[in-house]
């Protein structure tokens, strides 16, 4: 490759920057007409590994997908998981709850599928109820009577 001799050698004319495509040669009108696929050009080995990992029917296996931003990793994994999950058993729900003795090691609850959201809603309702019940208790006549008896 030769080095440019002047600034003019670096200028590219506009007719060299644009290539017109014959749209009549395409078998579709818009990209909406195209079939959605999870296949990625040059990624067949990665897709095979991903499908293999998704197909592991044993506990304790996880997938870790690594790559540059914007390659469609999330979309591809989501499509493959949706396809696999359409015929698979519904897995249980997993909830991590506070461990008051060792806060950095939460307890894990395994619940039947769909029950975690109910537990979450019930716990939120419990907290709301407690936030009303505790102040009400300390403002009651019965509480004041007991305090006076103790004093």
Task: Give an overview of the whole structure.
This protein has five helices and two strands, in the order αααββαα. It has helices spanning 14-17, 44-54, 73-85, 115-138, 141-150, and strands at residues 93-97, 107-111. It is elongated. The model has no long low-confidence stretch (mean pLDDT 87).
- What is the element string, with H for helices and E for strands? HHHEEHH
Rg over alpha carbons: 31 Å
Average residue-wise pLDDT? 87
Computed structural class: mainly alpha
Uncertain parts: none
Q: How much helix is in the residues?
A: 40-55%
Number of strands: 2
Number of helices: 5
Content of β-strand = 5-15%
> How are the strands ordered across the major sheet?
1-2
Shape: elongated
Distance, first to last CA? 98 Å
Largest sheet, in brief, is:
2 strands, antiparallel
Keywords:
single chain; mainly alpha; two-stranded antiparallel ribbon; 5 helices; 41% helix
Summarize the structure.
The chain has 151 residues and is mainly α. The chain has five helices and two strands.
Write the layout of secondary structure elements.
Layout: H1 14-17, H2 44-54, H3 73-85, E1 93-97, E2 107-111, H4 115-138, H5 141-150
Antiparallel strand pairs: 1-2
